[in-house]
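tool_call predict_complex ligand=S-adenosyl-L-homocysteine
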Amino acid sequence: MLSSPSFAKPLFEDRRRALVDHLRGRGITDERVLHAIATVPRELFVPAAMRDKAYEDTALPIDERQTISQPYTVAAMTQALDVVPGQRILEIGTGSGYQAAVLAVLGAVVYSVERHHRLSQQARQTLESVGLGTVHLRVADGTIGWSSEAPFHGIVVTAGAPDVPEVLARQLTIGGRMIIPVGDRNEQQMYCVVRTSDESWRADDLGAFKFVPLIGREGWEDGIR
Ligand code: SAH
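tool_result ok
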């Protein structure tokens, strides 16, 4: 009886609430972001064998040797994006679809690009299963953005870039912002790049993070992963 599905759901809900408290303690203050994290069932976005770890504040492996980002990282990036419902947001690196789900729950119109077909397909299934089938997914090199759908009020790059791709910066609205980790293949500084006019951008440093590499024309060469 203890393992019946009717017991499984409250268990995850309790863990989700505990994670939200933990994120609050780590300095996430935007209640809308915390509410979105309290809403999205992260256990459905991690491999079945890892469900038990879904509410630990760690990155977890997914297929294609990629990772679902750590909850704190998702929260910090989402808070920095400062999403207003109805805004068009581009995500580079769909992965599990978890970050896209959090953005969709916040009311964003989400466009998300992934280079691995299999991950995009799995993310599509998961998003549909939680009622978020409206997220627009595409399999492509996201380092060049999604020009036919530009401009975007926000862009979130969930893999580490060697530099800020200019082509992406030009797909922002004036006043739009891009959250992007920039550094070497192992460690990056997170930047909030704001487009202040047609030809000017400002970058604020949000601290050190670790992401899998952004692979593509304006990213790293396809090497080890
Ligand atoms: N946002 C994801 C995190 C995935 S990790 C989540 O919530 O689960 C980063 C993802 O970026 C990986 O799936 C990787 O395959 C993808 N990626 C790396 N370079 C890319 C590129 N140029 N275009 C699109 N996706 C890319």
